[in-house]
Amino acid sequence: MSWFNYYGLIAVAIILIPNIIIAFVDKNAYANEYDNKVMLVLEQIGRYGCMAFMVFNIPYTYFNFWFTHALTVYLIVNGILLALYILGWIVFGKGRSVAKMLWLSIVPSVSFLFSGIMLSSILLIICAIFFGIGHITISYKNSSRK
Q1: pLDDT of the chain along its 146 residues, tens only?
Q2: Which of 22, 39, 35, 14 has its CA nearest to residue 95?
Q3: Is the pTM of this model over 0.85?
């Protein structure tokens, strides 16, 4: 894989599509009631870093797949995780239940971290950890505040 990861671009698009649709349909869907500046910053750095490093492979921070058939494993596991993510949007529907919020924060976090490990992308791994910690914490805190 070169400096541009087409598969990563598709994965990011699949994650973003339901979020964009919900943002247009429900203006309050992303209301944040949990006000912890450290977690908010951690989540945002992780979010935008993951989206960028899923698509762009930065030289000397990215070492490509590290075993035979790794691309196949990468595509299958990410395909399953993305299907689970979309399924979560469908199954849980509207509302902000703890189960929904955790599902929709854990699954993409795992996908980003898995991708970083498979691609041996140091920056993607770091951003995935930041995103996972921030996003899962914020999602849980927001869903439990009713």
Answers
A1: 689 999 999 999 999 999 999 888 877 767 788 889 999 999 999 999 999 999 999 999 999 998 999 999 999 999 999 999 999 999 987 777 899 999 999 999 999 999 999 999 999 999 999 999 999 999 999 887 65
A2: 22
A3: yes
DSSP of the chain, one letter per residue? --SB-HHHHHHHHHHHHHHHHHHHH-TTTT------HHHHHHHHHHHHHHHHHHHB--TTTB----STTHHHHHHHHHHHHHHHHHHHHHHH-SS--HHHHHHHHHHHHHHHHHHHHHHTBHHHHHHHHHHHHHHHHHHHHHHT--
